[in-house]
Known about the structure:
The structure holds 2 protein chains of 2 kinds. Chain A has one domain (about 10-145). In chain A, about 75% of the residues lie in helices and about 0% in strands. Chain A has helices spanning about 10, 15-40, 40-45, 55-70, 80-105, 115-145, and one strand at about 5. In chain A, helix 5 (about 80-105) runs antiparallel to helix 6. The model of chain A has no long low-confidence stretch (mean pLDDT about 85). Chain B has helices at about 1-25, 30-35, 40-50, 55-85, 90-95, 95-110, and one strand spanning about 25. The mean pLDDT of chain B is about 95. At the A-B interface, strand 1, helix 1, helix 2, helix 3 and helix 4 of A face helix 1, strand 1, helix 2, helix 3 and helix 4 of B. Strand 1 of chain A pairs antiparallel with strand 1 (about 25) of chain B.
Amino acid sequence: MRPEIDVGAIRQTKWHEYIIRFVFGGCVTVLAGVMAREFGPVVGGLFLAVPTIFPASATLIEKHEKENRKARHPEKDVGKTSAGFDAEGAALGSVALVLFGWIVWRFLPGGSAAMVLSLAFVAWFLAATVLWNVRERSTKRGRSESGNNIA
Amino acid sequence: MGELLARFLIGGAVVSLFAVCGDILKPKTLAGLFSAAPSVAIATLCLTAIRQSNGYAAAEGRSMMAGAIAFFIYALCAHWLIMRIRLSVRIVTTALLPFWAATAFFLWWEFLR
């Protein structure tokens, strides 16, 4: 399936759902800072890869997909299936997150923070999209046979 | 107090931005990539590099690799429990968070301590 941008999806998310994600993200960032201050950077660093976005996003995906597709596929639990595919994407993104951490660890002591963090982010994005492409190619045949286009 | 507020506001904004990127993308496997975006890492490492030092932030980056491996295991377990066992998404993603923490601390204890 080709990548698409659906700006209309923004309107499906309610204000309180945006606020919950903002507060949760802020709290986790504060927690990471407090843990680093109390126990040092080695423990604090673990919290830089907390699943912050995934729990709320997967729950929202399940809810929105259920609402959107209920009329067309009343017999299928498409919300859960979509959330499952979101989890698969998160697994691919987390592999790229290891690369992000490695670049920060190896290059930050000898370089500018802005440069190294920009490089690490670009590397994360490229690695994640390459992994996604590999996954898409390897499952393309299976998907076209079953006719399942949710993923 | 000022630093904590800055962390809260920057962290909340960056996490929200990546979450919106995930919301508007299709298919969902592609959107899922943004569920594992380095949102907290970018917010925290920027502030750490400014307030502390690059070496301090680099040490956090090293530990972050253990957290990311724990995230990978967490996401695979969530995928399996949602797709195969068909458990509630809210329950799975929340109940597995302590499992993420346990895995991350195990990796820290074994390899980074």
